Structures are given as C-alpha cells and as structure tokens.
Amino acid sequence: MTTNTNDELAQIFEGWSSTVGKPTLKDNARMTTRGVDVFYGEKQAIFGVDLDIGKNEVLAMIGPSGCGKSTFLRTLNRMNDTIDICRVKGDIHLDGDNIYDKKMDVVNLRARVGMVFQKPNPFPKSIYDNVAYGPRIHGLVTRKAELDEIVETALQKASIWNEVKDRLDQPATGLSGGQQQRLCIARTIAVSPEVILMDEPCSALDPIATARIEELIAELSENFTIAIVTHSMQQAARVSSRTAYFHLGRLVEVGATDKIFTAPEHRLTEDYITGRFG
Ligand SMILES: Nc1ncnc2c1ncn2[C@@H]1O[C@H](COP(=O)(O)OP(=O)(O)OP(=O)(O)O)[C@@H](O)[C@H]1O
Ligand SMILES: [Mg+2]
C-alpha cells in the first residue's frame, strides 16, 4: 500500500510546475483559470491552478478531503468573496470577461455562474417563489404570464414539474430532499446561467434521488456548462466527460474521464482512484 507522509508530499511538490494532461482547451473554453492561488489568511489552499472548463461539458473535480475542491469551485463565481480572510490571485475569465475585474457586477456574475450546494437549500417560500426569485431580482420579466412560463420551463428542465405542478403555492420545505435539490437546480436554471457549479450535490440524497440528479446532469449538459465536485468516483465516471484530480491544493492531472479512471499518468492520481489514498 502506497501512502505519502506530508514530507514525501512536500518533496513531490517541490519544483512542481506542470499538470499531467491538458488543463487548457483551445477553442471551446467557457471559463479559463490561470495561475490561481487562494489563501485563507496566511495559509495557501490552492496553488497555481490552470484549468479550462469547456462549453457544454461536464467537468468533474475529485480528490481527497481538504485538497481544495470547494475552495477552487467557489473562485469560479466569487463565492469566496463572502469569506473575510479569503484572498484569490490569478486570472479567471468567463467568456472572455475577467470575473475579478473591479467593474464586474458580482450579483450578475452569480446569475451567469450559478451554484448548487451539498445540502439542498430552498428559501422558506413557496415552490413557485423559489424559482421566480432570480428572474424577479434580476428584472428579467415584466408580466406575470412571462414569469409563469419561466418557472414552468425551469421546473421541467429540472425534471420536477410533474411532481409539483399542482402545489406550486405550497412551501418548498415540504418537499423531499431529492425534490428540494431538483428545485434548487430549477432555481439556478431560471436565470439562464452559462455555467452551473455543483459541490457534492448528491451527498445528502438517497440512491434513487441521486440517480435522478445524475440523469438530470446529463440532460442539462446539452444546454449548460457544468463543473461538479464529487467524492464518488463512480459518479464522476457516470456524469462527466473530463475529470480533474486535485491533491493538496494542486491540480495534479486532468483529462478524459475514462482515461483518468483506467490509465492515469500520475502516481498520486493512481493511488487515489485505486483506493490507496484519501
Ligand atoms: N473558510 C475557511 N477558512 C479557513 N480555511 C478554510 C476555509 N475553507 C476551507 N479552508 C481550508 O482550505 C483547505 C481546502 O478546503 P476545501 O473545503 O476547499 O477542501 P475540499 O477538497 O472541498 O474538502 P472536502 O472534500 O472535505 O469538502 C483545507 O485545508 C481547509 O481547512
Ligand atoms: Mg468540499
């Protein structure tokens, strides 16, 4: 069994400069990150990550607990801004716009890059009002009929419409966990994001609800770009086309999902996917 002590890892990462695989895409990148470092106070959590997320791809991010997956994901829609001690360096672009530019409207950015969290977090409002919330605050509609249509379409795309169409005025908190998570996905979709970030979206769900969300991810990838953090390698294999392996804040390896899981090029990746580490 191969495990690495922290000293050995420090050695592995000494002079670390390259990622195995192709972190950058030529023509179809929707988001690009270059030289991204993240600090919490003095402590550095992410080291020089270069990674592109392609249009309409599902990119999975995997790696041992504490390796920085959530931290990196949060840099992509500036969710880290909400953490006082957190500082982000490097360049992150969305369709050519520098998202850390002073002129960037962060509320608008978070509509363009939506996020679905580990635990479903519907607002304590009706099912309808949860989905209508974004379109309302972003002033996307003026007429009730338009809003009704957006709400219905988002719920359909999130494959929950049939379960809720007769109870739209009831509290969202009355739904099951899996339904709540699909509602949260509908809420994200309702503002037509370019990218959807998902941080372990199924970890609070049972296997049936998980399967529904995984099917949904496949459907959504036709229209949206998705980056998903998951602890489940089976899930990464099922839903993603590319997988990025993170280790101690570094992007170790990225490539086609089937290649990462069958013929990884880096020992750290291999140790993780074969269960020898993490
Ligand atoms: N708000 C915070 N303040 C200080 N340190 C933090 C904060 N959030 C994360 N960290 C630290 O940053 C590092 C990366 O954490 P992160 O939560 O991004 O890892 P992760 O890969 O998502 O882990 P997990 O798989 O357990 O969710 C860890 O060392 C963690 O302790
Ligand atoms: Mg995490």
CATH fold field value: Rossmann fold
User: What is the N-to-C order of secondary-structure elements (H for helix, E for strand)?
Assistant: HEEEEHEEHEHHHHEHEHEEHH
Q: Shape from CA axes?
A: globular
**Unique bound compounds:** adenosine-5'-triphosphate, magnesium ion
Unreliable stretches covering 5 or more consecutive residues? none
**Regarding CATH, which class?**
Alpha Beta
Structure report:
By secondary structure, the chain is an alpha/beta fold. The protein has one domain: Rossmann fold, CATH 3.40.50. Helices cover 35% and strands 25% of the residues. It is built from eleven helices and eleven strands. Helix 4 (127-137) crosses helix 5 (144-157) and helix 4 (127-137) packs parallel to helix 7. The radius of gyration is 19 Å and the shape is globular. The relative contact order is 0.19. This is Phosphate ABC transporter ATP-binding protein (PhoT family). InterPro entries: AAA+_ATPase, ABC_transporter-like_ATP-bd, ABC_transporter-like_CS, P-loop_NTPase, PstB-like. Keywords: ATP-binding, Nucleotide-binding, Phosphate transport, Transport. Residues 31-273 form the ABC transporter domain.
Describe the structure concisely.
This protein is α/β, with parallel strands linked by helices. Helices cover 35% and strands 25% of the residues.
